[in-house]
Design a protein that fits this description.
Number of domains: 4
CATH class of the largest domain: Alpha Beta
Number of strands: 13
CATH superfamily of the largest domain: P-loop containing nucleotide triphosphate hydrolases
Strand content: 5-15%
Shape: elongated
Radius of gyration: 34 Å
Number of helices: 15
Order of helices and strands: HHEHEEHEHEHHHHHHEEEEEEHEEHHH
CATH topology of the largest domain: Rossmann fold
Amino acid sequence: MNLRQRFAELLQIITKNIPEREYHVQLGFLTTLIQEPFYLYGHPGCGSSLIIRRISNTFKNAKILRLGKKQKELPDNINDYNLIIFDNFTPGDEQNKSNLQIVVHDHEKNSIIISGDQKPESALCRSEVSDQVTLTIMLPENISSDALCALLQIHGTESEEPVPDNLAISAEEQAQWIKEIHKVTLSPNTLAVIGKVSETCTQNGVYVSIRRWIALSNMIKAIAFLNGRNETKLIDTFFLGTSIWGRSASNTAISESYREILKTQLYKNTPSLLEKPYNADDLLMRVNHLVHSSNNLYETKPFNGEKCLAYRITIAGESVPLYAPLKYIETDVSFNPYNELRQIEKRVLCNYHGTSNCTISIDPQVRTSGLRSSVNQSSNTSTKFEEFGTLPTYILRENAPEIIEQKKTLRDSLNSEIKESMERETANLVALRNTYKLFNESKDDLFCFTQMFNSVQEDIKAQFDNTANIIKTIKKASETIASFSNNMLKTPNLVGKQQAKPQAAQGQSAANAEK
């Protein structure tokens, strides 16, 4: 039996019948193994005593010192003990507080477990040992209904899980492993994660001493060593993204930041995956507009950084301008136009329905109040718009040569964009596939935080599926534009032909195009 198999069996024994606390037990065991102090925080009845017993049982012939209500006197030589446990620790007890300070400052080859039901930030800060305690393990207050039912079924059975002699850890083995753990190399990925987590701690006012960072890095090394590796991996840092930082606010801030840090390292060789996903639907819309639109020259004006068709409509006795981006004309896309304040007017919905005549619909509430009634618009997407009218568009010239030339230039530009985006997204797809495969190899690693592992895998898979859909849309755009030729550009395609400007009108009447 190799070391990894031995520890796999050990972890299985000490986590048996402790539902939804398995990772907490593993983390406590790992910290004890490398002789680092930790604080086990939980309300009475949450299972802390059972967890401590399970961890204690893994060490062969261990000499254990328990300090608490029954024994308060500290022996002359604390280094004669393998494991020192502070039961139900409270900083209000001056004797216990003094004992803890002596132990955490003077211990050499002891494992130290501090358990209590006072919040870590209070218990450790008041005891003035925050910098010496490597991490806090916060046990969940509640248990799910499924876990509760499973627990009730085994209630009354033997809760202690004896550790066979061939699995139990001797003091000599522990000392030898600690030496070997120190030889493990921290990979560049691991160091990058530690550095970024350190920056997050600084930004959120979480002080972490150098001694503590060394202890945390030793835990990372220990995970690699017990999995049979001489170099760490990203998965070994998972516990940094859990609730080990003491304060609830610190735990939340660092755990949220850790997910982004981990994602950055996963995709460091494909930075485009960290950016906003490429909008292939917009590409396809532009290609379809190029292929299927006419060569008409429309009267436009620059507005909000793009060419727009300007209209004026009358609602509730007020004549107000609206601006529709030229890119939507002759398409079937529903969109919100700009208002005179250069904002997207969410209370108005437009659609050209493949022609040059725009159908306009409005939020029923503005019929009486008007569009100028409120600058702050509702973002409610469930609004049922009512048809208001049709807005014809003024055509300056049909089959205009300048439009044909512009479309030729646009065709070349779109072809370049299709080629570039296809290459980029294909490379992203390959990278995601390789990342998923490589990451999946670690799913059975010891001390793997399963919940975070599954979350990361689901994120990779979701990105893979999204990238595959983007490629599919790009291919469709490529096939559509392939049928486009210069001859087609020269063929008149008169859509929504309008030769004159109608006058401004209200209600269901046509509204005029503003010059």
